[in-house]
Amino acid sequence: MFLQHVADGILSGAIISLGAIGLSLTMRILRFANFAHSELLTWGAYSALVFVGFFLAMDETLGGPIGPFSFGWSLVVAAVLAGGLTAAVALLLDRVVFARLRGHAGHMTLVFASFGVALLVRNVILLGFGPDPFYYSNELQIAVRVGAVRVMPDQIFVLGLTAVLVVVLHLFMTRSRTGVHMRAVAENPSLARASGVDVDAIVRWTWIIGASGAAVAGVLYGLTVQLRPELGFSLILPLFAAAILGGTGSLYGAVIGGLVVGLAENLSVMVIPSSYKPAVPFLLILAVLYFRPQGLFGEPR
User: Fold this and answer.
1) Cβ-defined contacts of 69-74 (< 8 Å, 24+)
2) Does 195 score more than 90 pLDDT?
3) Closest by CA position to 163, among listed 54, 13, 57, 34
4) How far is CA 4 from its chain centroid?
5) Which helix (H) or strand (E) holds 108?
6) What's the pTM value of the predicted model, to 2 decimals?
7) Strand-pair partners of 149
């Protein structure tokens, strides 16, 4: 039982980590807590559902499962397209809302604006798709037993894809010119601008990376659980807990933070009723802010 909860915690933590990376970058580079970030997960998940339906209408064979997985190539392509569409929506929201406030309004104004954007996105999805849950596929899977742990093939895929994306993002942040500029802006925007860095372009890249990562996380969540309009709202505390625990702006901090949150949530049901499980991320946030406000990998300020 303990090992099964650990396995479930790692798998759910992988999804939280992927969503927390974008939130952590936003908090460090754009310097405000974006509560609309969790709704980008929902937008990405439902966007992929629309693309899957479109592909299946064109050719039903595209929906056939790949090997032991429950999904076909239609979902793989749909996830990529959903990432691009979600990034475009994030850039539009920044241009219409956040860019007009950035530099002219205080931090709390941006935070409250993100609340309003989150409500808008959630209700647009609710209006378009209704309150009922959706699934990408109705294919049945056979659980794989690894020792005393049972996992679904889709869950193994989620863990593997998350690991690959984290490595790719690490290489981007450390080896590419844009990644180096993003780290410079995160440290000191004024000095970076004086050094010739196009800060506006870095802001756009921050939205693109954060939103596309959120979209993929939303698709993975919908793949292993289900799609529902309150998907993002249910993940908002775990995402913030992971970002704060790891230290804002830290790629691997967000990953470790997500895994810790996932493990804490799933192990907590062994000692407390499952109805109290959503309170665990909140308690983690309080503990981190009290004992180490900068997070595990953050630098004291």
Assistant:
1) 69/141, 69/153, 69/154, 69/157, 70/136, 70/137, 70/139, 70/140, 70/141, 70/153, 70/154, 70/223, 71/136, 71/137, 71/139, 71/154, 71/223, 72/137
2) no
3) 13
4) 24
5) helix 107-129
6) 0.92
7) 146
Q: What are phi and psi of 193, to 5 degrees?
A: -65, -40
Could you tell me the CA-to-CA distances from 132 to 40, 219, 239, 262 in Å, in that order? 19, 17, 24, 26
Tokens 């303990």 correspond to what residue? 2
Query: DSSP 3-state assignment of 134?
Result: strand
Helices (H) and strands (E) in the chain, counts: 12, 2
Over residues 120-149, the pLDDT tens digits come to 999 999 999 999 999 888 777 777 777 778
Distance between start and end Cα atoms, the chain: 42
For residue 142 the two structure tokens come to 């056979």
SS3 102: coil
Residues 16/242, Cβ–Cβ less than 8 Å: yes
Q: Is 278 helix (H, G, I), strand (E, B) or coil?
A: coil
CA–CA gap between residue 218 and residue 227 (Å, rounded): 9
Mean pLDDT estimate for the chain: 88
Residue 67: which of 154, 8, 145, 155 has the closest Cα? 154
Helix H or strand E encompassing 144: strand 144-146
Neighbouring residues of 129: CB distance < 8 A, sequence distance ≥ 6: 46, 49, 229
Domains and CATH numbers, the chain: 2-291 (1.10.3470)
